[in-house]
Amino acid sequence: MNLHTLVAPASHAIEVKHSRFLALAAPVATADAALGWLSANGDRDATHNCWAYRIGEAYRSSDDGEPAGTAGRPILAAIDGQGFDQVVVVVTRWYGGINLGAGGLVRAYGGAAAECLRRADRVALIAMGEVRISCDFADSAEVHSALAAFGAEKKEENFDAEGVHFVLSMPLDRIGDLKTRLRDATRNRVRFAE
User: Fold this and answer.
1) Which of 23, 31, 43, 133 could form a disulfide with 112 if both were Cys (CB 3.0 to 4.6 A apart)?
2) How far is CA 62 from the centre of its chain?
3) Are 169 and 194 in contact (CB under 8 A)?
4) Domain range for 185
5) What is the tally of structural domains in the chain?
6) Residue 188 contacts by C-beta under 8 Å, 6 or more apart in sequence?
7) Residues with Cβ within 8 Å of residue 116, at least 6 apart in sequence
8) Are residues 105 and 38 both part of a single domain?
9) Do 71 and 132 share a domain, yes or no?
């Protein structure tokens, strides 16, 4: 499954039995960034600010005073269920005077988060890797011509008596194809290190 993150922050509001729920979501790269975003975007005057984030294998959630498992976990389930990573979501509730019960809370918090993420613009997360290539001067043109075709970004290019040395950043799933192409094109004269 390809994971996605948000292009930009997103929001979605719903009302359930006079309680207002506002879901806010944002892309984040670290747990510290997620916690910082949460402290800046929760409403201190609201009844509850329940939240969750997922960043790779790291995740956390909070029910913020709601019954255990009725808010944070459904928000995290919405993140995971829609294939998101590097995302934080807070669902703020302003109590409307009618108790929703555990099932109603799960549906309201999870539903607000899921709809917020469903409507948001997303971008695929691509796992990147670093590749080091060394070659003779005569073969450097082959390396240059292959960069764009394989989505590689040149980070460094150095020259010495042995030839040219490149440091590339590129999608992990394309590294094998790049190696094959360059080995074939240069009769195996290109050297790789990862």
Assistant:
1) 23
2) 20
3) no
4) 128-193
5) 2
6) none
7) 10, 11, 12, 23, 24, 25, 89
8) yes
9) no
Please provide the DSSP assignment of the chain as one string.
Answer: ---EEESS-EEEEEEETTEEEEEEEEE-SSHHHHHHHHHHHS-TTSSEEEEEEEETTEEEEE-TTSSTTSSHHHHHHHHHHTTB-SEEEEEEEE--SS--HHHHHHHHHHHHHHHHHHHS-EEE---EEEEEEEE-GGGHHHHHHHHHHTT-EEEEEEEETTEEEEEEEEEGGGHHHHHHHHHHHTTT--EEE-
Pairing of strands 58-62, 48-55: antiparallel
Cβ contact 166:191 at 8 Å: no
Map tokens 């996605």 to a residue: 4
Do 16 and 110 lie in one domain? The reply is yes
**3-state DSSP percent of the chain in helix, strand and coil, to 5:** 35, 35, 30
Q: What is the pLDDT of residues 69-121, one digit of tens each?
A: 889 899 999 999 888 889 999 999 998 888 888 888 999 999 999 999 999 88
Which helix (H) or strand (E) element contains residue 34? helix 31-41
